[in-house]
Amino acid sequence: MNFKHKIILVSLHILLAASVFPQEISELEIPRCPATICGENGGDHEVHKYSGFSLCFRNRYKDAEWVSYTLTQEKLIKNARRTNKFIEDKNISTGSAKLSDYKASGYDRGHLAPAADMAWSEQSENESFLMSNMTSQVPQLNRGIWKELEAQVRKYAQSLDFLIVATGPVLEKQPEEYSSIGQSKVCVPEYFYKVLLSKDKDGNWQSIGFILPNEKSEQDIFSYKVCVNEVEERCGIDFFSALDDSIEEEVESQTENIFTQDYPVKPDNGNMNKQEQTRQ
Questions:
Q1: pLDDT at 269 over 60
Q2: Would you say 169 and 124 are in contact if contact means Cβ atoms under 8 Å apart?
Q3: The pTM is what?
Q4: Cα–Cα dist 261/135, whole Å
Q5: How far is CA 122 from the centre of its chain?
Q6: Residue 38's pLDDT is what?
Q7: Rounded CA separation 109/112 (Å)
Q8: pLDDT attached to residue 277
Q9: What Å distances lie between residue 222 and 20, 190, 214, 264, 274, CA to CA?
């Protein structure tokens, strides 16, 4: 099968998946925040949708408070090469972070929606390098345990019909209380989160959360597991609100389920592949 036919086949698979998981999944994917509640952008919150993910950009922090997307087995098929072409996001009304903000800062331009999760199409891969999708991460986190967690998410998606992912920095303080980098004053978060939602083989909703400090860690990723409720409390964001309230409360209090069974992961904090280094 040549490359062109492979892309066509993957596109058909993705369209089929969309027909199987229509509105229910798309509604669950978008968290409730001031911009999504009022239905329009304004002030500090801006919601933008791209081909592979959606995000809410916080202008005062120069960071996205959440980036969300859905992974399927079909979307794990790689059809685009990593470009490493970081570009400013012209959709952000006040301007996203700039490449120059990170120069000599000591921080990586850490992806929120990982490029590896967006490699199912050239457009989604390219858009994953928008600066609105970047956050200031300590290199040892970005290339270590955070990278391990991203790989674990793809491992989950390999065995599930779908996996809803939301991720971002924990912005629980005022912007001026964080250290910042660059002329744009890009806030440096102290913690990052990731929340996941899917169904088990019996059709029961399952969720898990992770909160990791912005520092090097030798711990296993499951040392940082939390329930989704805890992430919501720290971030002030309502995830998976399209679930019935009774189901949502039970699901978002879980810490032991399909996401914690038989998934041993050893952090690889020594991985410093030069091609993947983004610190300048």
A1: no
A2: no
A3: 0.86
A4: 30
A5: 18
A6: 64
A7: 9
A8: 39
A9: 31, 19, 16, 9, 27
Q: How is residue 189 written in tokens?
A: 């978060």
Contact indicator for 153, 163 with CB cutoff of 8 Å: yes
Instruction: Write the single-letter amino acid at 207.
Output: S
Rounded to the nearest angstrom, the gap between the alpha carbon of residue 169 and the centroid of all alpha carbons in its chain is 10
**Rounded Cα gap, residues 46 and 119, in angstroms:** 25
DSSP string across the chain: --HHHHHHHHHHHHHHHHHHS-HHHHHHHSPB-HHHHHTS-BTTEEEEE-SS-EEEEETTTTEEEEEEEEE-SGGGS--S------B--TTSTT----HHHHTTSS-EEEESS-GGGSTTSHHHHHHTTBGGGEEEE-HHIIIIIHHHHHHHHHHHHHTSS-EEEEEEE---S-GGGS-EETTTTEE--SEEEEEEEEE-TTS-EEEEEEEEESS---S-GGGGEE-HHHHHHHHT-BTTTTS-HHHHHHHTT--SSTTSSS------TT---GGG----
What tokens does 152 get? 């674990």
CB 209 within 8 A of CB 31: no
d(CA 227, CA 109): 27
Alpha carbons 144 and 239: distance in angstroms, whole number: 26
Residue 186 dihedral angles phi and psi, to the nearest 5° = -75, 120
Q: Quick one: pLDDT at residue 40?
A: 65
Catalytic positions, written as ranges:
111
